[in-house]
Amino acid sequence: MKTPIKRWFRNRWLLRTCGVLVVLWIVFVGYIDWAMHQSPEVFGHVMMHMPMPAYFLFPFETMWTQARFGHVNPGDSAPDFTVKTLEIKTPMQLGSLWTEKPVVLVFGSYT
């Protein structure tokens, strides 16, 4: 039979351990949230080192949706940005394209 003192120490240890795990989980989620708001290169570097079990413990999809939520509505003009072309690898500004002709942006994977 366990004495009340042993039970008290065991419960106290268990409570502290759970508290530390919750704090570590919150810090890690905050770090991932910070990384999701950075450039794709920084985010890719962070995610490259992510262990596989972490994908099951943290709400990545929800966080990603909130981090990358845009402010463009249907019918609005696209924001001007610069990208590298696939063929030339030189920067091209989107605004320079739509002065000559209409531009359609398609985002997705066709592989």
TrEMBL record:
The protein's UniProt keywords, in alphabetical order, are: Membrane, Transmembrane, Transmembrane helix
Q: So which domain of life are we looking at?
A: Bacteria
Q: Which residues cross the membrane?
A: 12-36, 42-60
- Which named protein is this? Uncharacterized protein
